[in-house]
Amino acid sequence: MSFNGWTQIALFMLIVGLIVKPLGAYMTRVFNGEWTFLSPVLRPLEKGFYILCGVDAKKEQHWTAYGFALLAFSLAGFLVLYGLQRLQALLPFNPQALDGVTPDLAFNTSVSFVTNTNWQSYVPETTYGYLVEMAGLTVHNFLSAAAGIALAVALIRGFARQSAATIGNFWADMTRAVLYILLPLSIVGALVLVWQGIPQNLDQYSVASTLEGAQQIIAQGPVASQEIIKMLGTNGGGFFNANSAHPFENPNAVTNLIEMVLIFAIAASLTNVFGRMVGNEKQGWAIFGVMGFLFLAGAATLYWAESSTNPAFAALGIDASASPLQAGGNMEGKEVRFGIANSALFATATTDASCGAVNSMHDSLMPLGGMVAMFNIMLGEIIFGGVGSGLYGMLLFAIVAVFVAGLMVGRTPEYLGKKIEGREVKMAMLSILILPLSILGFTAVAVVIPQGLSSLANNGPHGFSEALYAYVSATGNNGSAFAGLSANTPFWNATLGIAMWVGRFMFIVPMLAIAGSLASKKTLAASSGTFPTDNGLFAGLLVGVILIIGGLTFFPALALGPIAEHLALQAGTLY
Question: What are the angstrom distances between the C-alpha of 495 and each of 111, 440, 442, 573?
Fold first, then answer.
């Protein structure tokens, strides 16, 4: 570890912190239907969409109708994307004349992009033509991110309203998220990325002659437009198989910083939206503080793990310590353009925020470094998390935390003036526990049957970690992977696709039920017996609840994978 590395991490968090308040204020105005500086241009377009689709934006929905609209929209998106992939060979803008995609891969990819996961069991540049990339994958990067933002706003309304039967209008919330937030930021951001050297064209792949006289195919295409929304919407799916380690997706240190900031920008700012809409910005800062603390703890641990010398090298007498001539630490799988500090920071941010983009290979992380990335997702993608999903996931843990606090003092728990009763706690725990059910259940099957084991590149603890990470990533709607797993098989495509559905929609439905229940309640005035939820004490309690639930649930699995691998590596018995 170095002073320079810590400076870069501090600079990243400073930029994110400076973005939170202005972007949060803007998004609050958008979802309250108030006038913004973009309204003169976008308000007529917004109304045009409502007229075209027959939507009455002023007619709000009960939580069941809100949820049904989301599910119906997601199903329609899944079918359209599936059809585009299967019919690819017949479609235009396919200069490489790529064939249609197999049924199991088309299923997996459609689920992946509809659920904001962007798990990729394929090599993008040799699988999809430009039309599928643009009209299919990139469009769903916008829509799935917008749906997540809309759901977070719906839950916020549940806390902010009283004696209400509705939580907003899904169609209006999603439309505004795309038009006023995602699209303007993506247009400006894509132009910046093009300026920095990221391609944006519809040309055929270039063929270059190497110094040895061989022919090399250089893939290109509409990269910048997908790159910007994959980061801003915490989608993560790369235009290239190497993702953000590829120089056409991430050319230099400037784009690397921009992309990392984009991963956190909206998710972090939604904490400010929460504070503003419930009438107390300190509530939002308390949630931001919890997210920030967990992020820094993970980043420090991962940075330390990757800066340490690999014991296997030390046993061979190899000097891997930092010096003027070498970076030191574990440089396997990392881009020399970014080094250990930026690789560790990127790996932490992308697994905290359900983004899944990578600028280094997670399969090459040291065992404890890989464990940090895995544990970030295991916590439910609540450390900033996906756009929207991180906030509503964190608020479910907040409900559990105030319930625990209520048990401690022997009184009915309250959060933001709303009594937290049995219904809310049951729904919160149902959402939280559905994740380990999917993760541990599918992993247990995959590591004992031939269809699962045949795709693993490694035996022992690391092979177990590859399988575990896959289901953690799929269920957590992250999309990153331990790349030793060859997942493009019927078994893995099907089971990972199911895990993505479970992690997105079986988590969302109980959450919307909580939003509807809270909206119907009256807001109670604070009293001398009210437990404050906007200070450090509550933040500490919330951190403790998150770590205890995560630790008790996943420690046995982690002990079989990265912890066992770390101990074996230290003992010199792994290699």
Answer: 11, 12, 7, 33
Strand 215-218 relative to strand 206-209: parallel, antiparallel, unpaired?
antiparallel
- With CA atoms as reference, report the closest residue to 230 among 142, 160, 361: 142
HSE (CB half, 13 Å, CA atoms) of 134?
15
Shortest CA distance to 237 belongs to which of 165, 322, 169, 136? 136
Rounded Cα gap, residues 60 and 71, in angstroms: 17
Query: Which neighbouring-strand residues pair with 418?
Result: 415
What is d(CA 263, CA 409) in angstroms, rounded to the nearest whole number?
39
Q: Are strands 414-415 and 215-218 parallel, antiparallel or unpaired?
A: unpaired
Let me know: does 528 contact 142? Beta carbons within 8 Å: no
Question: Is the predicted pLDDT of residue 484 greater than 90, yes or no?
Answer: no
Query: What is the Cα–Cα distance from 34 to 154, expressed in whole angstroms?
Result: 17
3-state secondary structure of 575: coil
Please say whether the beta carbons of 296 and 175 come within 8 A.
Answer: no
Which residues are bridge partners to 216 per DSSP?
Answer: 208
* Nearby residues of 45 by Cβ (< 8 Å), 6 or more positions away: 179
Distance CA 370, CA 224 (A): 29
Beta bridge partners of 208: 216
For residue 490, what are its two tokens?
């019927």
- 379-410 confidence digits (pLDDT tens): 988 899 889 888 999 999 999 999 888 887 77
Task: Provide CB contacts within 8 A for 533, sequence distance 6+.
Answer: 283, 286, 398, 402, 415, 416
Task: Let me know the angle formed at the C-alpha of 144 by 395 and 22, rounded to the nearest 5 degrees.
Answer: 60
Q: Give the max Cα distance, the chain.
A: 80
Planar angle of CA 118, 234, 50, nearest 5 degrees: 95
Q: Is the dihedral of CA 137, 138, 141, 147 positive or negative?
A: negative
Give the integer Cα–Cα distance in Å for 299 and 319.
25
Contact 317, 232 (CB under 8 A): no
CB count in 10 Å sphere of residue 516 = 24
C-alpha distance across the termini of the chain, in Å: 26
Domain range annotation of the chain? 13-276
- Cα distance between residue 171 and residue 73, in whole Å: 9
Taking only the tens place, the pLDDT of each residue in 277-333 is 998 999 999 999 999 999 999 999 999 999 887 887 777 777 777 777 677 788 888
- Quick one: tokens of 351? 């697994």
CB distance 474 to 467 below 8 Å: no
Helices 253-277 and 339-352: angle between axes, nearest 10 degrees: 30
SS3 readout for 116-134: CCCCCCCCHHHHCCHHHHH
Report whether 378 contacts 476 (CB < 8 A): yes
